[in-house]
Amino acid sequence: MTAKPEMNASDIAKAVACGQLSALAATEAALARIKQHDGILNAFTDVTAERARAKARAIDADIAAGKKVGPLAGVPFAVKNLFDVAGLATRAGSKINRDLAPAERDATLIARMEAAGAVLVGALNMGEYAYDFTGENIHDGPSRNPHDTTRMSGGSSGGSGSAVGGALVPIALGSDTNGSIRVPSSFCGIFGLKPTYGRLSRARSFPFVASLDHLGPFARSVTDLALAYDAMQGPDADDGACTTRGLEPTLPLLANPISDLRVAIAGGHFQKNVFPEAVEAVGRVAKALGATQVVDVPEASRARAAAYVITTTEGASLHLDRLRKRPNDFDPAVRDRLIAGAMVPASLVDRAQKFRRWYRAQLAEIFKTIDVLIAPATPCTAPKLGQVNFNLDGVELPVRANIGIHTQPISFIGLPVVAVPVPLEPLPIGVQIIAAPWREDVALRVAYALEQMGVVSAPAPRGL
């Protein structure tokens, strides 16, 4: 059996486990596709070919010896380059971090993926220090959209979106502080999961904003998303924010009926600042789910503003020494925003944090009466590379700062979200399936139902 680009992770794992496909053949197919297409997509910054081959051979040896293999046996995956990969400097999209010593240990989530049988094939391009929504990197060049390579992949996990959207790998890992899983998912036409804050360990990954950072997977199907998510769950003492909750597998629940779920459309802020394609995508999802109730999320615009205050000040605090010692080695756009963050008065940060507690309580009340909120993931399909401005509701606004206008109010309080791709023409766009804290299973069930109905799907890359 030959590994084909359209094979999902679950297909590869089943074929490897039953001996129809070797893990090495699956790995070589991924490495060949990376070699063939990454010159265009620019998704990878590092390809760990020899490590991948060694892991694949070990899996094949275990199968030959009759040993049990994991649920991701032989599945190639890649990670945003802010994850520690043993033997590589953790560059986090920056020039400065390239001077760091190579990491001695893999990030927890890499170790858990490999324990489930997955095969790491490399590290992925990203916006500098994760402070980006475009997927453009001044040091490594932009990762490109697999459906139109003149367009953005979305950031900051742009390489992850590009690699999965371009079918170079079936699964990638990224991070989401204000939308950096959901935005690339939307632009690149793939599925992405931002779990509840604290659900997945961030140990041995380079931080951006500790109180907002999440790690999570990208995939081309909901089943693959659940497979990866389940493999990575579990407490980790190496991340102080990681939950002590036990494993709560979602894969066995995917096909459960959703008729008992109360689904509502997010109103107010989430129905403003949108292009027609975002309206169309939300409308299709709402119709398929029979959702007619509109719920206003109170002060969502203020939540976005408060998220910005916390982001820029925590980010500035993290990078203050680097800003003083090596200011010219930053992307100027990132540097200037961090410098601005260092000058925000403490009183504003205090107000943002107090508002955050109020806003969390308001959303908790909403989720007493509903199970799922649906909202746009991005205001538009992928803009052109280098595009500076776009027009939102008649106002000319900067692209970089406003792509996350609908994601920031959600990650601000750590809610779990599955971004689902609606395959519009000529470009796909994502919709957020938002659930109550710790209910990733609910969001994934709804995403799976939509996928089974054919409303959402990851289109084949059109730009390769």
pLDDT averaged over residues: 97
Beta-strand percent range: 15-25%
CATH H-level name... which superfamily?
A: Amidase signature (AS) domain
Shape: globular
How many beta strands in the DSSP annotation? Answer: 15
The CATH architecture: Alpha-Beta Complex
SSE ordering: HHEHEHEEEHEHEEHEHEHHHEEEHHEEH
Largest sheet: 11 strands, mixed
**Helix proportion:** 25-40%
Strand order of the largest sheet: 1-3-2-6-8-7-14-15-11-9-10
How many distinct domains? 1
What is the CATH class name?
Alpha Beta
Blueprint of the fold:
Blueprint: H1 9-17, H2 23-41, E1 44-47, H3 49-64, E2 76-80, H4 108-115, E3 119-124, E4 144-145, E5 148-152, H5 158-165, E6 171-176, H6 182-188, E7 191-194, E8 214-219, H7 222-232, E9 263-266, H8 276-289, E10 294-295, H9 300-325, H10 332-342, H11 346-366, E11 372-376, E12 389-392, E13 395-398, H12 399-402, H13 408-411, E14 417-422, E15 429-435, H14 440-453
Parallel strand pairs: 2-3, 2-6, 9-10, 9-11
Antiparallel strand pairs: 1-3, 4-5, 6-8, 7-8, 7-14, 11-15, 12-13, 14-15
Attribute tags:
464 residues, alpha/beta, Amidase signature (AS) enzymes, eleven-stranded mixed beta sheet, 15% strand, globular
Short description:
The protein has 464 residues and is of the alpha/beta class. It contains 14 helices and 15 strands. The protein has one domain: Amidase signature (AS) domain (Amidase signature (AS) enzymes, Alpha-Beta Complex).
